[in-house]
Design brief:
The complex is a heterodimer. Chain A is an alpha+beta fold. Chain A contains 5 helices and 12 strands. Chain A has one domain: Ribosomal Protein S5, domain 2. In chain A, strand 5 (122-124) and strand 6 form a beta hairpin. Chain A starts with a helix and ends with a helix. Chain B has helices at 85-98, 125-139, 166-169, 201-232, and strands at residues 18-22, 30-36, 39-50, 63-70, 110-120, 148-156, 159-162, 177-185, 190-193. Chain B has a 5-stranded mixed β-sheet with strand order 1-2-3-5-4. Chain B has a 4-stranded antiparallel β-sheet with strand order 7-6-8-9, sandwiched between helices.
Chain lengths: 265, 233
C-alpha cells in the first residue's frame, strides 16, 4: 500500500520536468471545498475537502478553570484523531505520531496568531473561563491532512457561537446558544505546508507525493505575518529553498482566506 | 383516545427523513452515509485483509470487526475523543447484528473491518450506524445474504412510536421512556434487539411488529443508494 519505488521514481522524473501526475504545477492546490455548519450539536463545524482528502472539524465550548499562567484568559485545546476509516494504512490502537504533531502544529498556529481573543473569554478572573476545544477528525487521507485541518479549524471557529451559561449554577447550558460568535480577530491564521522532493518544492501533496517527500515546512501566517513554523523530516533545506518556501506561502495565503470567507456567506 | 403528539409532529409510526448514500470515503473498499433526520452516521469498510494483531486471527474463518465511535462534537455536551465502555459495547452489538448476513467464512485468517463514525447525533445512532454499515459492506462487495435494517422503537408513557429522537428518549411523563433498538434481516429475522425501560410482553411483541412495518422504507433507501452508485459505474 506504500508508494512503490517505481511510482516514486516516476513522480521524481515528472517533477524534474515541472509536472505532476494530476497535471498540477508545483505550486497549485487541488480543488478546495469548504462547508461550514455540518454538525448541528457542535458550537461550530466545518468539512474541508482538498481533492480526495477530507477532514471534519468541530468546535465545542465549556466553562472551566483557567491555567495558572493565564488567569484572565480562555483556554484553547486542539485534538486530532486519524480515524481508521480514513486510510487502509491505519490500524486500531494508539494514534500515529503524525496525529499528535498535526494537533500541536494547528494549536500553535492558532494560538500564536492570537486569532481567538482569549482575553474576551474570561468569565471570572482566576476562576471561570471558556475553554475552546477544536477537534479534528480525518475522513479520507489522500495527503496533506495538515493544511486541510488548519483550514477546517479556522472555518469551524468562524462558524462557532457561544453556548448559554447559567451564572448562578455555574453550568453551561449545552444545546442552547447565545447570538454571540466566538470572539475572533480579522486576521485568519493560515497553515500551509511546502514539501521538498528532489530539487522541487511542491504544495498540497497527494499521498503518493507525501510518501516520497524528503522534508516539509509548515508555516502559519496571519495577514502576511508569520506566527508559527515547523520543519518536519530530516532532509536539509538550503537558504534559497527556505526563502522560496516563504514566497510560496505568502502567495497562497490570500487565496485561502478568500475561500474560507466565501464558505461562511 | 386523543391523537398522541410527538415533539416533532410526526405520526407515531412515521420515520424521520432518511438520507442514504454510498461511496463517501474514497480510500475505503466500501463506504456509506445513513441518516435518520439529524442523526447521521458514516461507515467505511476495509478488507478482507490480513488480521492484526496476529493472535486475533481465526484460522477457520474470516472475522467481522466493527468499531463504533461518536465524534466529540456530535452531541451537545462534548464527549472525550476515543473509545468508551459504551462505544465498545455498541461496536460488539453492531458486529452481532451484521454477522448473520455476511458470508466471510472462506476468508480464513482475515478480517473485514467496519468503521462507524457518528457525525451528528439525535438518538438512534447505533441504528443509523448499523444501516450505514450494511450498505458499506454491500458497497465493498463483501458476499452477503442480504441487507439488515435497523430502527429504534420507543414507548413513551404507554404509546409506541417509531424512530426515537433525543427529546423522546428523555420522556418524562407517565411511565417514562422505553428505548428498543431492533435490527432485522430482509426476511424478518431479528439479528439485534436491546431494551431499556419498562414494557409488558404483549406490548414488546407489538413493538417488534412496528419495527417490521418500518423496515421496507429503510431497506428501500439503502438499496436505492446502492443501485444508484451501481448505475453511475
Amino acid at each position: 500500500m506504500i508508494t512503490s519505488d517505481l511510482t516514486a521514481q516516476r513522480i521524481r522524473e515528472y517533477l524534474s520536468k515541472g509536472k505532476r501526475f494530476d497535471n498540477r504545477n508545483s505550486e497549485e492546490l487541488r480543488e478546495l471545498v469548504i462547508e461550514t455548519g455540518v454538525s448541528k450539536n457542535a458550537e461550530g463545524s466545518a468539512r474541508v475537502k482538498l481533492g480526495k482528502t477530507e477532514v471534519l472539524v468541530g468546535i465545542k465550548l465549556d466553562v472551566s478553570a483557567p491555567y495558572a499562567d493565564s488567569r484572565d484568559k480562555g483556554n484553547l485545546m486542539v485534538t486530532a484523531e486519524f480515524l481508521t476509516m480514513s486510510s487502509p494504512r491505519l490500524d486500531l490502537g494508539p494514534q500515529p505520531f503524525e496525529s499528535l504533531e498535526l494537533a500541536r502544529v494547528i494549536d500553535r498556529g492558532i494560538r500564536e496568531s492570537h486569532f481567538i481573543e482569549l482575553d474576551k473569554l474570561c468569565i471570572k478572573e482566576g476562576e471561570k473561563v471558556w475553554t475552546v476545544m477544536i477537534d479534528i477528525y480525518t475522513v479520507n487521507d489522500d495527503g496533506n491532512l495538515l493544511d486541510a485541518a488548519g483550514i477546517g479549524a479556522v472555518a469551524a471557529l468562524m462558524n462557532a457561537r457561544v453556548p448559554k451559561y447559567n451564572e448562578e449554577t455555574g453550568k453551561t447550558l449545552f444545546g442552547e446558544w447565545t447570538d454571540n460568535k466566538v470572539p475572533l480577530t480579522k486576521d485568519l491564521p493560515i497553515s500551509l505546508t511546502i514539501h521538498k522532493i528532489g530539487n522541487s518544492l511542491i504544495m498540497d501533496p497527494t499521498k503518493e507525493e507525501e510518501d516520497i517527500s524528503e522534508t516539509r515546512v509548515t508555516v502559519c501566517t496571519s495577514n502576511g505575518t508569520i506566527c508559527s513554523m515547523q520543519k518536519g523530516n530530516s532532509k536539509e533545506l538550503t537558504i534559497e529553498e527556505f526563502n522560496k518556501v516563504l514566497d510560496l506561502v505568502e502567495k497562497t495565503e490570500k487565496e485561502i482566506v478568500k475561500k474560507i470567507e466565501g464558505s461562511l456567506k | 383516545m386523543s391523537e398522541f403528539k410527538r415533539p416533532d409532529g410526526r405520526k407515531v409510526n412515521e420515520l424521520r427523513k432518511i438520507t442514504a448514500k454510498v461511496g463517501v470515503v474514497p480510500n475505503a473498499d466500501g463506504s456509506a452515509i445513513f441518516g435518520f433526520g439529524d442523526t447521521i452516521a458514516i461507515a467505511a469498510v476495509y478488507g478482507p485483509k490480513k488480521m492484526h494483531p496476529q493472535h486475533s486471527q481465526n484460522p477457520e474463518k474470516g472475522t467481522l470487526r466493527c468499531t463504533y465511535n461518536m465524534m466529540s462534537f456530535s452531541v451537545t455536551e462534548r464527549i472525550r475523543p476515543g473509545p468508551s465502555r459504551r462505544s465498545q459495547e455498541i461496536s460488539k452489538i453492531t458486529e452481532w447484528a451484521l454477522q448473520p448476513i455476511v458470508m466471510i467464512d472462506e476468508f480464513a485468517g482475515q478480517v473485514v473491518d467496519v468503521h462507524i463514525n457518528v457525525l451528528q447525533a439525535n438518538a438512534s445512532t447505533r441504528c443509523a450506524g448499523i444501516n450505514a454499515a450494511a450498505m458499506a459492506l454491500a458497497h465493498a462487495g463483501i458476499p452477503m445474504k442480504g441487507l439488515v435494517s435497523s430502527v429504534s422503537i420507543g414507548k413513551l408513557d404507554k404509546q409506541l412510536v417509531t424512530d426515537l429522537i433525543k427529546a423522546e428518549e428523555d420522556w418524562e411523563e407517565g411511565e417514562g421512556p422505553t428505548d428498543i433498538p431492533i435490527t432485522m434481516t430482509e426476511d424478518g429475522k431479528i439479528t439485534h434487539i436491546q431494551l431499556d425501560g419498562k414494557i409488558t410482553p404483549a406490548q414488546l411483541k407489538e413493538a417488534v411488529l412496528l419495527a417490521k412495518e418500518a423496515y421496507p422504507q429503510i431497506h428501500e433507501a439503502q438499496s436505492k443508494a446502492l443501485k444508484d452508485v451501481g448505475e453511475e459505474k
